[in-house]
Structure to design on (170 residues):
């Protein structure tokens, strides 16, 4: 049987995407635990002339606390059920269309960040955030490793749209 030279590349890509997923979740879980033990109740720590700040925060909303003021039933529906459904849809679409390259890496990062934050919401009721960056008065909101993974994953998904098949694999 003649197989193209690149036939095993898709398998390697899937293994690497899975490793990226596990590494991202692991890094997020470890840094959140470190934030709970080292930053909770401690004053803000500044590095690089205040460019990077570490401070503990629990976020009951989404990114940048969006939705934190919603009633509990609405937050549960949107941030647990809605996110779980969106993550499941991401995986199903990536598998159905056999994403590869940047698209697969982006899906892995987005899924990993989403799952890690979802686990916090399910088991803790809030997400641990602990870092911000900025210069002078211009600062980001407080975020975590999972948030970075979601954003980088989204950028890679946009960049990798060439690795997305237009029709399902047969």
């Amino acid at each position: 049987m003649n197989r193209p030279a690149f036939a095993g590349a898709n398998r390697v890509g899937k293994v690497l995407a899975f490793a990226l997923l596990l590494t991202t979740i692991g890094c997020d879980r470890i840094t959140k635990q470190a934030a709970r033990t080292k930053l909770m109740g401690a004053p803000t720590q500044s590095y690089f002339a205040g460019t990077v700040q570490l401070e503990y925060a629990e976020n009951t909303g989404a990114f940048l606390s969006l939705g934190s003021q919603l009633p509990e039933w609405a937050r549960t529906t949107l941030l647990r059920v809605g996110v779980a459904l969106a993550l499941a849809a991401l995986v199903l679409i990536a598998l159905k269309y056999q994403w590869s390259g940047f698209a697969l890496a982006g899906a892995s990062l987005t899924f990993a960040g989403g799952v890690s934050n979802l686990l916090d919401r399910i088991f803790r009721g809030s997400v641990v955030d602990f870092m911000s960056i900025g210069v002078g008065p211009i600062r980001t909101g407080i975020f975590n490793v999972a948030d970075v993974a979601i954003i980088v994953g989204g950028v890679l998904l946009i960049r990798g749209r060439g690795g997305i098949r237009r029709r399902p694999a047969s």
User: Anything to note?
Assistant: DSSP finds four helices and four strands in the chain. The beta strands are 45-47, 52-59, 127-135, 138-139.
